[in-house]
Design brief:
The protein has ten helices and no strands. It is mainly alpha-helical. It has a domain of 96 residues.
């Protein structure tokens, strides 16, 4: 299994390195402006769509008054969902070739800005008021690690996907690319992709967890 995992790691590195090398070119001013235009354009569409859809859902009594569907009235939910879908759809178009001009590097800058923005809203004093939440986190991470290791053994996944997949679930796009780059610099984009899919699955999973907790709270 160790040999199989290492062999798959090497194949993954080679495949991504070959693709990066095939599209790599010197970024021009036009390339940079196009990449920024795609990024800010996607954000604008996500904001516009989120405002429209959240207002639409809020106007529907069957959704706004339903505790299990109330998440559909959230602007943040729709903004993240739309932005994620745009990113996935663009990966199937010629826009993916901008990976060779440094699209991942520009994206990483905004990822750090996003994480810093989220971190500025944290209130660490809440830990003292709710110390049992630390225990919840320990149990949560133990289950997370146990499931990942079990699945990695069952499907004989490379260590790369085990490590980066874990960070894609826990830290998202802020940490998955960094861990991926430790294996090989060209694998950074794979870390970003896994993090995006982590957001897709995580959004659905979080909604399911919310519904389950609401059921427990009201029972």
């Amino acid at each position: 299994m160790v040999w199989c995992g290492q062999s798959r790691d090497r194949r993954s590195k080679k495949r991504v390195s070959d693709y990066t090398a095939s599209v790599k070119r010197e970024a021009t001013f036009t390339d940079t402006m196009v990449m920024l235009g795609i990024g800010f354009g996607a954000v604008a569409i996500a904001h516009f769509g989120a405002n429209y859809l959240s207002d639409l859902m809020s106007s529907m009594d069957g959704i706004s008054n339903n505790i299990y569907l109330s998440f559909l009235t959230s602007q943040f939910f729709w903004m993240i969902s739309i932005a994620t879908m745009i990113g996935i759809l663009l990966s199937f178009t010629p826009a993916k070739s901008y990976e060779g001009t440094g699209a991942s590097s520009i994206g990483s800058i905004f990822i750090y800005v996003l994480v810093a923005t989220i971190g500025m809203k944290m209130d660490l004093t809440q830990i003292v008021e709710n110390p049992l939440l630390i225990l919840v986190g320990i149990v949560w991470m133990a289950i997370h690690a146990g499931l990942l290791i079990l699945m990695a053994k069952l499907i004989k996944a490379p260590y790369f996907f085990l490590a980066v997949g874990s960070q894609a679930n826990v830290g998202g796009a802020a940490s998955a690319p960094i861990v991926a780059a430790e294996f090989h610099p060209s694998l950074t984009s794979v870390g970003v992709l896994l993090a995006v899919f982590g957001y897709v699955v995580g959004t659905i999973g979080a909604i399911a967890c919310t519904v389950l907790m609401q059921i427990v709270a009201t029972s």
